[in-house]
Specification:
The complex is a heterotrimer of chains A (153), B (500) and C (322).
Chain A: H1 6-24, H2 43-62, H3 73-96, H4 98-112, H5 118-139
Chain B: H1 2-11, H2 14-32, H3 38-50, H4 54-79, H5 88-99, H6 103-136, H7 141-152, H8 154-158, H9 163-176, E1 180-181, E2 188-189, H10 203-221, H11 241-244, H12 248-263, H13 269-283, H14 295-311, H15 313-319, H16 325-336, H17 343-347, H18 350-380, H19 386-403, H20 409-426, H21 432-454, H22 460-463, H23 466-482, H24 484-499
Antiparallel strand pairs in B: 1-2
Helix pairs in contact in B: 1-18, 2-3, 2-4, 2-18, 3-4, 3-16, 4-5, 4-6, 4-14, 4-16, 4-18, 5-6, 5-14, 6-12, 6-14, 6-15, 6-18, 7-21, 7-23, 9-21, 10-19, 10-20, 12-13, 12-14, 13-14, 19-20
Chain C: H1 5-23, E1 35-39, H2 46-62, E2 66-70, H3 77-85, E3 92-97, H4 98-107, E4 117-133, H5 141-150, E5 156-159, H6 165-177, E6 182-185, H7 189-197, E7 203-204, H8 209-213, E8 218-224, E9 248-256, H9 261-275, H10 278-287, E10 294-295, H11 296-316
Classes of the chains: A mainly alpha (153), B mainly alpha (500), C alpha/beta (322).
């Protein structure tokens, strides 16, 4: 871990992003634009990115005396797991359907957040996704992503 | 008077009354659930309304609409996750109140303010709808741009503690909303050749990520697990009359802001609640307490966003112009059922207008009752162990992110917004300005460029229009006022430099 | 104003029964579960309502439910792509309108084109019209052209988007008559209408049904169709005024390419019955447009011709993607 504050890192990240995107606004695709009253598609974003760059640098200056970011290993590990679980859930919804993915997620997330009582977890995982899926997909007919393996969900 | 009786007759059927009840209950529930909002609520009831008669269909739509705008405040207060973007400003003071153990009282303030805001806007719709609609037509692209710039000042109003970080978040929000299709030229921006990104970054998935998902990540990152539980008072408590008295001026002002902003096509409840909150921060005698759990913040935000509901019907009914996707659907419903909106509605078939007014009054009263009874349930939801509750919220919120457009990439957008929101929160950046930026971005950019097309590229012509000029002048004046300390310092420094 | 509900219901039931008799022909194996109809716009819009009205009687004929699924975004292209990439088993059909089918694929690179689909039927088609404010001095195309010649650079023309059909039509009009417009994009009919009422723009091109619902505030100066329409016979076409403009706004059902022929035929039978059902004709009547239907083969030829024509117009305007 570098010995800088999180605000400093965010400022630096934003500044890099702004520089990259400002550079990107000069790409060829934006120069062939059709009609613009003299102002093309990147006119407004370029102003915003310019301001963003200035503000990020200002945030970095302001943050130079902030305390350095400290992360303990167990918190970092738990964070990574929770992020993986949520990201995996998002992917699973599109690949395995809403119902199956949600049941899986309801089994995994509570223990990661420090809740270990098995019975409530099982009850919630068994009932909650099914109820929601039934309400939306079946009753009010807002179709949710379905799995490739089953016809109904 | 005869027209009023005729209007009463229109709605005096058990189908209509039942529709009001069901619509409002559904509206409050989708409002409470993060990610689900007006749009999904309307989608849910739409198939049913197609099979209904004219008045019941309209009643159900209005119930869902008003209910959802109010419902968002409850989750903003109880779990610091605004149920809808419109309630993002409510969380600023609502959640700190809940943390003090006064969730029941905070909901009381929000419910009462919503009721008054809603009824106020019905009054506006009844008394001055044609005049207000005519005035709204003064708002061409140029005035809309000026109003958008004025509304941006709210970013300063909701950036507690750190102005610099707040403004950065706001500009980031403005930028994020510009990703995707450029409406004016039809070009793709910052999509890097990905056709799915052409749909852009929608507000709902972003809000789901920024608030609901980032809340999960923040809890996961807190080292002391499990957390000591706060003592929440469950239920519903109305603030005492003497608490209201010093806030009446604020309440009226917020209602007026909401009603006015709502009548302008293309602006909505989220904009009005932020403007109103920022105004409270500027002028309230208790402004130093705002952001720490001061009822003024809840009153300003909630009365303004519910005051939009009635006045949004002004351009819809009086001109046939829908102000947002929700009123567009309502307009469609009206037309299907043979009502032709437009100026003649107010002269020839005023009974229909009265029926709408009466429905709105009933919806607001039902909304109050649903809030009062429902909050017994919602506040008790906090007794569910937090990890389980957060899992449930995450699942429903992601469903909402998906359901708004039925677009799988919105799930990914919500997740990324969650990570970004988490990092920003940890770095001390406020998130409300980011939402303001996203809400205002397209309004500001499109109206600016439409205005430039209208004036054939001249910025000076923007200043020749009186309303626009007044708004620009107010914007600059308030900016100077907010930064007066900074400016005085700068002048002093320049003066010393000159004297030397 | 209130319709007798029971009568309406009875009519629906009667037509459904008649249709059910028609539909029970050969395809015993399709469908065995609900069919999803993708609508590429948000719920509650004009296309969505039409789709939902069509879905009812279609379901009756197919003997299963037809569920409308809204996949909105990027001018309808997300929903069209989703349809093109769905399994070609007939359980996913798309109600695809003119924009995503015939203009968007020209404007940028998309993962689908006219070859990505098998064609089921055309469900509706109605002309668009050039409209002005009711107090406008323009009564005919000629008034407009004369004014534009006398005051070059003054007319503002609201369009839904650059490269949309109204924009292409406006470009065509300008080229043919030698005048010019400033095209200003507003996000749809509502904002365009606002801009016309507040005086920002002088004209725009909506669907002909817009005239019916806003009859007090707008007036048509030219119907962009080869012939007058039966539901509004007093609207004068552009061709009668000497300008060849024919820009229908249509939509039809498509399935992913490779769908079995008998499944596609079953859907076509259901679609034809749906389009001619009482509820659907009532819907068209409320929009002020005649009922129009084409079978799969005819629809495919029609889409391909429109695709070619719009491509030519867009590239002539310098709007084609590389």
């Amino acid at each position: 871990m570098p010995r800088v504050s999180l605000a400093m890192m965010i400022g630096a990240g934003m500044a890099l992003l702004a520089v990259f995107l400002i550079h990107h606004t000069f790409a060829d695709v934006y120069q062939r634009s059709y009609q613009a009253a003299g102002r093309g598609p990147v006119f407004f974003p370029r102003i915003l990115l310019g301001i963003l760059l200035v503000l990020s640098v200002a945030v970095m200056i302001e943050a130079r005396k902030d305390a350095a970011l400290q992360v303990s290993w167990d918190v970092a590990l738990r964070m990574v797991l929770v992020l993986l679980a949520t990201g995996g859930y998002v992917l699973a919804v599109t690949k395995a359907g809403f119902l199956l993915a949600s049941i899986g997620f309801a089994l995994i997330l509570p223990p990661l957040l420090g809740y270990r009582r098995l019975l409530p977890i099982l009850v919630i995982a068994a009932l909650y996704p099914v109820c929601i899926w039934y309400l939306f997909d079946r009753i009010v007919r807002i179709p949710l992503p379905s799995s490739p393996w089953f016809v109904w969900f | 008077m005869a027209d009023l009786m005729l209007g009463l007759e229109h709605i005096a059927s058990y189908q209509t009354l039942l529709s009001i009840l069901i619509g409002t209950v559904v509206g409050v529930i989708v409002g409470v659930l993060p990610g689900l909002g007006s749009v999904i609520g309307i989608t849910m009831v739409l198939p049913f309304t197609l099979a209904m008669g004219q008045m019941p269909a309209l009643a159900m739509m209005l119930g869902v609409y008003c209910g959802s705008v109010y419902g968002g405040s409850i989750s903003a207060i109880v779990i610091n996750t605004p149920g809808t973007p419109q309630a993002a400003a409510t969380a600023l003071d609502g959640f700190p109140m809940a943390q003090r153990g006064e969730a029941d009282l905070a909901i009381g303030w929000a419910t009462m303010a919503s009721l008054i805001g809603g009824l106020f806007s019905v009054l506006v719709l009844m008394l001055v709808a044609p005049q207000l609609a005519a005035f709204a037509l003064n708002f061409t692209a140029i005035e809309t741009f000026a109003l958008g710039c004025f509304a941006l000042i709210c970013i300063a109003g909701v950036s507690q503690g750190n102005m610099l970080k707040g403004v950065l978040a706001g500009v980031l929000g403005l930028f994020i909303a510009s990703v995707g299709l450029d409406h004016v030229t039809g070009d793709m921006r910052f999509t890097f050749g990905n056709w799915q990104m052409a749909a852009g970054i929608n507000l709902i998935p972003a809000v789901v990520g920024l608030f609901a998902l980032s809340e999960v990540f923040v809890r996961a990152s807190e080292s002391s697990l499990p957390k000591p539980k706060l003592l929440h008072r469950a239920g519903f408590r109305l603030p005492a009359m003497r608490e209201w008295r010093p806030r009446l001026g604020l309440l009226l002002k917020s209602c007026a802001i909401g009603s006015f902003v709502g009548a302008l096509p293309g602006t909505g409840a989220a904009t009005s609640s932020f403007i109103s909150y920022a105004e409270a921060r500027r002028s309230s005698p208790r402004r130093n307490e705002l952001g720490k759990g001061e009822p003024d913040g809840i009153v300003a935000s909630e009365s303004a966003n519910n005051a939009v509901t009635g006045s949004a019907m002004v351009p819809t009914l009086a001109l046939g112009i829908p102000g947002d996707p929700v009123t567009a659907v309502m307009l469609g419903t009206l037309i299907i059922h043979g009502i032709t909106p437009g100026p003649r509605l107010f002269t020839e078939t005023i009974d229909i207008v009265y029926a709408v007014l009466l429905i709105l009054v009933l919806v607001n009263l039902v909304m109050f009752a649903v809030g009062a009874l429902g909050s017994q349930l919602f506040t008790r939801a906090l007794r569910i162990p937090e990890p389980l509750l957060m899992t449930m919220v995450t699942i429903i919120a992601l469903l909402g992110a998906y359901g708004v457009r039925g677009n799988a990439i919105d799930l990914l957008i919500a997740f990324i917004a969650g990570v970004v929101g988490f990092i920003l929160r940890k770095g001390g950046f406020p998130l409300a300005p980011l939402v303001i930026g996203m809400v205002l971005s397209q309004m500001i950019e499109n109206s600016l460029r439409q205005g430039l097309l209208l004036t054939r590229g001249s910025f000076v012509a923007f200043l020749e229009r009186p309303i626009a000029f007044a708004l620009f002048a107010m914007t600059i004046a308030i900016l100077i006022y907010i930064n007066r300390a900074l400016l005085i310092g700068a002048f002093g420094w320049a003066g010393r430099l000159l004297r030397r | 104003m209130k319709r007798p509900e029971t009568k309406k219901l009875a009519a629906v039931a009667a037509s459904a029964m008649a249709l059910a008799a028609l539909g029970t022909t050969a395809h015993a194996d399709f469908p065995t579960r609900p069919v999803t109809m993708i609508v590429p716009f948000a719920a509650g819009g004009g296309t969505d309502i039409t789709a939902r009205v069509l879905a009812g009687p279609m379901g009756e004929v197919l003997g299963t439910e037809v569920v409308v699924r809204n996949v909105a975004g990027a001018g309808g292209t997300i929903g069209a792509a989703e349809t093109a990439m769905a399994r070609s088993d007939g359980y996913t059909v798309g109600l695809m309108p003119v924009g995503p089918m015939t203009t968007q694929p020209h404007l940028r690179s998309l993962p689908y084109g006219p070859d990505s689909f098998d064609y089921v039927c055309l469900a509706y088609s109605a002309p668009s019209a050039i409209v002005v404010r009711h107090d406008s001095p323009f009564h005919t195309l000629n008034d407009l052209v004369e004014y534009a010649r006398a005051n070059p650079g003054e007319l503002n023309f609201a369009v839904q988007a650059i490269g949309s059909i109204p924009h292409v039509a406006g470009l065509g009009l300008a080229a043919e008559t030698g005048i010019d417009f400033t095209f200003i994009p507003y996000a749809g009919d509502g904002p365009s209408f606002t801009a016309m009422l507040d005086g920002s723009v002088q004209l725009f091109i909506p669907h002909v049904s817009f005239l019916r619902t806003n009859a007090d505030q707008v007036r048509s100066i030219a119907l962009l169709s080869d012939e007058r329409i039966s539901t509004a016979p007093d609207l004068v076409t552009a061709i009668e005024q000497g300008v060849d403009m024919n820009y229908p706004i249509w939509g039809g059902l498509v399935v992913p390419r490779g769908t079995p022929a008998d499944v596609r035929d079953a859907l076509e039978t259901a679609c034809e019955a749906g389009v001619n059902s009482t509820v659907f004709t009532e819907r068209m009547e409320s929009l002020g447009t005649p009922v129009v239907y084409m079978g799969g083969a005819e629809f495919e030829a029609f889409v391909r011709a429109e695709f070619e024509r719009n491509g030519t117009l867009l590239s002539a305007a310098g709007l084609m993607a590389e």
